[in-house]
Amino acid sequence: MEIRGAALLPARREDIELRTSDGLTLVGELATPLEREPVATLVTLHPLPTAGGFMDSHIIRKAAARLPALADLAVLRFNTRGTTSPRGTSEGAFGDGVAEAADLAAAMDLVAERGLPRPWLLGWSFGTEVALKHGRPHPIEGAILLSPPLHRAGDDDLRAWQGDPRPLVALIPEFDDYLRPAEAAERFALIPHLRLVPVEGGKHLWVGEKQTARVLNEIVEVVNPAAAPLPTEWPDA
User: Fold this and answer.
1) What are the CA-CA distances from residue 92 to residues 124, 135, 179, 191, 227 (Å)?
2) Its domain of life (predicted)?
3) Would you say 138 and 55 are in contact if contact means Cβ atoms under 8 Å apart?
């Protein structure tokens, strides 16, 4: 079977609920390898919910669908406050990247409770703002930023990462709607150790299998390089 589109590879998939410090219940899913323990964990943060982002935004959904089987990764995805997906609706209302600090903290509480190994933040668009603004106090291995717009995360948020030894990797699409490679290099110069990856031909939404495969391979290269490059075929049952 060719791995593309909506391919759903074998994994243990569990509906989960997160409880925030301000009393909200958030809905989500934890996907883990079927026959092995995960070697690392992706805590995913989805794009802007007021523009249609949710836990099923396609890169996050495909990471959960493919990476437990292909790269031995656990993938935690959830709807931030006030966000709806087929899984359900998380309580509360959109917090403009501020109140979502409690949502990320609730996700990290679940990581700790389950003993999930080596957590990495994987933010996409608005999710990168949450990661940059609120990720640093948590016991993460590092963060991967897909299409960061740097709207809500300002220079002070970037400066806060100066001197932090944990790796940061930003994938910047050549034709991004909000932040293209040249401007990204200027803005992210405030974090000297951040690795910026310009993606030729890339767009903010990473539409199409070519861009999806590029993003997922970049993620695996960072988090579990022994599993890269990812295969493009899965044995038929």
Assistant:
1) 21, 21, 30, 33, 38
2) Bacteria
3) no
Q: Which residues contact 134 (CB under 8 A, 6 or more apart)?
A: 100, 101, 104, 105
- Other CB atoms within a 10 A radius of the CB of residue 142 amount to 18
Confidence of residue 115 (pLDDT cuts 50, 70, 90): very high
- Report how far residue 225's alpha carbon sits from residue 24's, in angstroms, rounded to the nearest whole number: 36
* Domain regions of the chain by residue span: 12-224
What CATH class is the domain 12-224?
Answer: alpha beta
CA separation for the pair 51, 8 (Å, rounded): 26
6-49: pLDDT as tens digits: 999 999 999 999 999 999 999 999 999 999 999 999 999 999 99
pTM, entire model: 0.98
Angle between helices 100-114 and 126-134 (to 10 degrees): 70
Query: And the tokens for 146?
Result: 């897909």
Confidence of residue 237 (pLDDT cuts 50, 70, 90): low
How confident is the model at residue 236, as a pLDDT? 79
Which residues have a Cβ under 8 Å from the Cβ of 199 and sit 6 or more positions away?
Answer: 171, 172, 173, 174, 211, 214
- Output the six-digit token pair for 45: 């943060």
